[in-house]
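Journal club prep — side note

Before the paper discussion, L.F. wants everyone to see what a predicted structure for a comparable chain looks like in token form. Sequence:
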Amino acid sequence: MAPEHNKPPRWAQTLLRKFASTDSLEEVEGDLLEFFIQWKATYGIRKARRRYVWTVFTLLRPFGKRKRHDHSSKTATYFMLRSYFKMSWRTLLKNKVSSLINISGLTLGLTTSILILLVVLNEFKYDQFHNNLPAIHLLMKHQKTNEGISTGWSTAGPMAEALRTEFPEVKYAARVAQFDEQQVVVNNKISYESGIYADPDLFKIMTFPSLTGDVVSVLESHSAIAITREMAKKLFAGEDPIGKTIVFNRHHSLTVGAVIENIPDHSTVKFGMVIPFALFENENDWLKKWDDNRIMTWMQLQPSADVPSFNHKITELLQTRSNDKTVSQFAYPLERLYLYGSFSNGHPDGGRITAVRMLIGFGVFMLLVACINFMNMATAQSEHRAREVGVRKVLGASRKWIIYQFLNESFMMTFLSLFTALALTVLIIPSFNTLTHSNIHFDFTSLPIGLWTLGIGIVTALLAGSYPSLFLSRFVPARVLKGRMVNGKGGGLRRALVTFQFVISVFFLIGTIVMYAQFDHVRNRPMGYEQSNLVAIHLDSTLAAKFSYLKTEVLKIPNVRSATGASNNVLYSGGAVTGMDWPGKRPGEELSVVVADVEYDWSKTMGISIVQGRDFDPAFASDVTGCILNESAVAQMGLQNPIGSMVGGHPVIGVARNFVYNNPFGKIAPMAVYLNPTRMTHLYLRIQNNNQWRHTLDRIEKIAKQVSPDFPFSFSFTKEEYEHHFHEISDTSLMISIFGGMTIFISCLGLFGLSGFVAERRSKEMSIRKVFGASMLRVLVSLSQDFLRPVLIALLMVIPASFFIAQWALSNVSYAVPLSWWMFASGGVMILVISIVIVLYHGWRTAQESPAVRLKNE
């Protein structure tokens, strides 16, 4: 016998026998003795005896609650979790096909969600870098017209000074006007740059830090300029630009007084150079008028400002000074401008936030589809896992630990998918940015991105693993070990989940078809003018000043059929004005009219039909005071006999057929065209339809270089430029289609999982049917009923609903495609065909299986 001092303390054994439960005393006493032997070998007899005594006390009340701190319990838990991790890994490797399907579905869902997360976070970053963001507001204007209330940011020139001097609510106010492609000369090198004219207060309102110099002082001067770091590098090739001269637009020698840090991509106000607004003011007398609105006005309000009261006061001021009661003004916060900057009939109606919410919903549904796919694949293997669960329960595993095991499998697959998705996202981002003209990137050091990504992974793992773990852990050992599966009450839920998957998939597919139909409808819209062989040439100030000479010389080229000029690109015509008078105008009635200046032969060169009257003609000297209206303007003014009518103080000499400009999706807005050869910015040419076009343009370039040698000659075909506009829209629709395709693919994986489950559950039934003489076709039909039911239910639910949703969505589009039955039927047929292929795959495998193999153990 072992000496007494080599045994556990006798008094502790006595205490244990006296107070421990008699039901478990024998097991507990034996386990403690085994632990005591291990402790003695590891730590020595004295420490082993102390551990034994401590363990006895933790097993007895009132000390039992401290059992969780026992080292042996922690060790057992550690080994159990490690065991579960190993089993999860082995299960993943054992079921290679289902694991691949699960990981593929989750990877696609997580990749899409991470991309959407990056886009959404980028959208919410807009303008957040400004220190005074809550106080920064843009002055906006409501204008009542015959068609309702239009809203815009164009304001009158004198308004900023009035805000500074007459309203204590305003701390700073600044005017801003943009310019594009103006000539800049540095060291005899010519380039064409874009930027803004701005008041000094703009840099007190907004946070654009200077690297060198003081921007406010620069803008208070009339002979200085501030440029960004990127522009400084471009113009001065790394030299210090401070004090150097830039010749701007041929007439202004400006000294670089400050260099500004590059403007963030997520900024509403962007520029490469800033020029004192005083220069712009000196050259444009219309800035003194209260009824001419062409510039932006930014404000920083005092913290105590009552914005509704302030809006009422600035509206009264504008109505009094402009003598126009149909206009009102309001301060709109910059922090809401980017996402909530859309207005309809004078009220905010969303904006980019609508697309952001749609993207968020899309990402959530993608993850749901991927999780449902995981659930169905897991439950499809329930018969294989049932005996495993039964054996574990017989050996003492509680349901809680079995749930932990299945959740562990879910977490393992989800995080394998997450790591794969992160790698895939990094690879996809460059192509995604090119495709969607975005500028997103995955910053691994960003805490918000890391937390959101980790959160998406955890939520996905819990969501995907919750139902399988609860479903599989409830199996009764006595039944599953006898070979009798539990009659799954979850079968209906599984079918409902797959139905939900296909509801989403069919909806996305039909939405994509309708979207493409709408784009094609607008792309093929009658333009109202002839785009083919119409060339636009941009003019600088020198070419514009000698427009008549340029046109005369160009018309001498044989392949040029006609030529004209315009103050705007025909695709994006001019700004709108109000305050025009016309015969029959009612008091308080206003109409927003787009205005454009053109040259002779306008309708002939552009291919626009004159439905009443005539085009501008050199034979009529009075045409310089006349105007041409489009059909939309005539209709909205209610002019019965427009020719000769006085509109805005100009006699109408012609009515042009409506042609599409600005927004190809919208209504054609009223337009008034004036003869003003001094304001030409574009030369339009109608050339012969032959293979000599390049030679023709080379000759035109030589003529342009004779007039303006330094100006870089550029041209564009109007038809190609218009198509390019749709290329950008098509890129966006392609992105949506790709994501929709991913959803459909994952949904089909879900159907694959359910079909595998049904085929496995009914394989013995099908074998018995074959024994009793059922044909192959009969077996396939019997299986197909269960396979295709969720798909058919989804089609019946989605097609009517998608029709009404498409009607509602297109009701806001002026030039909407007529909805047709094929848009909805084709989506349904496509999904049905894919589903039938999957059904035939599983059905054929089950029907081909020999009954003897399935029934040999029965």
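L.F.'s comment for the group: The longest helix spans residues 718-761. Keep this in mind when we get to the figures.
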